[in-house]
Amino acid sequence: MAVNNENAIIRVEGLTKTFEDDGKTVLNGVDLVVNQGEKVVILGASGSGKSTLLRCLNCMEDPTSGSIFFEGVDLADMRVNINIYREHIGMVFQQFNLFNNKTVIDNITLAPIHIEHRNMRKEKLKRLFGKKEENAKPLKTKKEIVAEKKAHAMQLLERIGLEDKADVYPSTLSGGQKQRIAIIRALAMNPKVMLFDEPTSALDPEMVGEVLDLMKELAKEGMTMVIVTHEMGFAREVADKVIFIDEGVIKEQASPSELFGNPKDARLKDFLSKVL
After folding, report:
1. Residue 63, class by beta-carbon neighbours within 10 Å (0-12 exposed, 13-18 middle, 19+ buried)?
2. How far is CA 252 from CA 30, 42, 124, 260, 267, in A?
3. How far is 209 from 197, CA to CA, in rounded Å?
4. CA 159 to chain centroid
5. Which of 240, 186, 239, 234 is closest to 210 using CA atoms?
6. Burial class (CB in 10 A: 0-12, 13-18, 19+), 49
7. What does the pLDDT profile of the chain (276 residues) look like in tens digits?
8. What are phi and psi of 2, to 5 degrees?
9. Beta carbons within 8 Å of 251's beta carbon, 6+ residues apart
10. Which of 27, 115, 181, 196 has the fewest CB atoms within 10 Å distance of its CB?
């Protein structure tokens, strides 16, 4: 099933998630629209369902019920090959999730190389058994694919000033460096949407700024972003829309000035009184 909306890149309708092991419902009828180029910040107390919502958007959790439309395609439909669409949804986690046994550049290029190899295999089969196309471009070799993806990775590392770290292992890096590399690893996939799950919560205070600065750059460049964070100053500065979720229900959503300046929900007022 598809839904038409000119600006929405993500549309969530009636999303519910109940975990089978304890029967707890962590998302309860969530409706959400994320428009192309929009920056959406999600706030809420620990255990409110914020991270589960992001994991559902990236198909890391299967919803119990409801729909998650990405570019009009319902990712909750079991007939949909979610792997095709997940390639366009970047995810950045609290704990970096870098592979410690691989160098920085290998961390960045692992998925892009794998996907490009897969696409080349598909194209070979298509050309072998399908209709011959005139003026078809020569297929890239594995060596060419690796060289191309590594060159792109180096450009991304240069962007964050860490090109000298390409051949080191993550264990030698600071937390801020790891998280910035985790962000450009997601960017290496050329995603249409970036999801951030409390990307600064595991960092020492002096490292938070360098990660937020990179995220602000992405926002200025027009990246569509959904961000779970406790950084209220960042939310005020970057967000187009701020959402407050409590006990798996969206209690309020508004512009930063409206939500922070004139909160209406009693639970939101209590939350803001403790974090501002």
Report:
1. buried
2. 12, 10, 51, 11, 10
3. 16
4. 19
5. 234
6. buried
7. 344 456 899 999 999 999 988 889 999 999 999 999 999 999 999 999 999 999 999 999 999 999 999 999 999 998 999 888 989 999 999 999 999 999 999 999 999 999 999 988 888 888 888 776 777 788 889 999 999 999 999 999 999 999 999 999 999 999 999 999 999 999 999 999 999 999 999 999 989 999 999 999 999 999 999 999 999 999 999 999 999 999 999 999 999 999 999 999 999 999 999 988
8. -120, 155
9. 244, 245, 265, 267, 268
10. 115
The torsion angles phi and psi of 20, rounded to 5 degrees, stand at -70, -30
N residues, the chain = 276
Helix (H) or strand (E) holding 63: none
In the structure encoding, which two tokens stand for residue 155, read together? 């450009």
What's the CA gap between 274 and 96, in Å, rounded?
27
